Amino acid sequence: MVRSDSNVPVRSWSHAVVTGGAGFVGSHLCTALLDQGAAVTCVDDFCTGRLENVADLADRPGFTLLRADVTEPFDVARTADLVLHFASPASPADYLRLPLHTLETGSLGTRNALALARRHGARFILASTSEAYGDPQQHPQSERYWGNVNPVGPRSVYDEAKRFGEALTTAEAGVNGTDTGIVRLFNTYGPRMRGHDGRAVPTFIRQALAGEPLTVTGDGRQTRSLAFIEDTVRGVLAMARSELLGPVNIGNAAEITMLDLAHKIIHLSGSRSTVEFVERPTDDPAVRCPDITLARGKLQWAPVVPADEGLARTIDWYREQAAA
Ligand code: NAD
Fold first, then answer.
1. Bridging pattern class, strands 39-44 and 15-19
2. pLDDT digits (tens, 9 = 90+) for 232-246
């Protein structure tokens, strides 16, 4: 490894393993790594992922698809120097449908992915989440905040699995010296999200394009901070290149209420849809906004795609999919 002038190490990889590589974020990571010249093994059990997300990668040199459930020990054929552990149901609709699988993926799956990284001497990155902060009592959330999670609420299968994964990753680095890092991703959106995965952006876009009312939960004043997928991928790979243990927040600090987001999507898509208020889910966080001081300072990373541009590109993608 060499160091650049900015003190961020310049690393490249010859073979990266991406668990959850057929999902939304994972498939974009596979593409970016192949574009940078790495061979990529995508490991996925397709519980929420889709073959079509990686269909255009199948013919690219260096791409391998391994259908496997990471809750069982797994290995890859050639030596890996990077393991990005992104396997996990991530949308509330998915993890409420798959509660035990979500817990096992965050615990056993993380253990198996860490063991793979240890055996291969690879850098390991855990995809954690802003949900580790629960319904936060500090705003914005910095990595120093320990969170406010209900350990027995319906969302706990996801939040606590990720928190356990963070603890396991940290212990693995301490006990076995494995080169690990943790990113806490805040809400990310973009092409390849499933229209019915239950998250706000794909739901609103699907409804707007169909001319249906946009279903805003509660009074719509709850906020989220939305990062476009290209920015998130850049942040994850900057973390992978670094030697930081983390956790490091990767997200866009531009905060928006769910009601404003609904109106923005109606406007950008030229839809005539209206807004309909529906019941708010249990333990739904009231606010969510990352403090990205650490990522800016240590990774020289910050999001650059404005919401209007990212949402317009995502809407275009859904239109193309509908046309196809
Ligand atoms: P996704 O559901 O689109 O992708 C998850 C992928 O993991 C799917 O392809 C699924 O089939 C696979 N998977 C799940 N359990 C598995 C298992 N046991 N073995 C093998 N594969 C398995 O979700 P996403 O939005 O792409 O999220 C990817 C990762 O990023 C998750 O770990 C999630 O917690 C994290 N994350 C995402 C966001 C976001 O806004 N998208 C925010 C925070 C954290």
1. parallel
2. 999 999 999 999 999
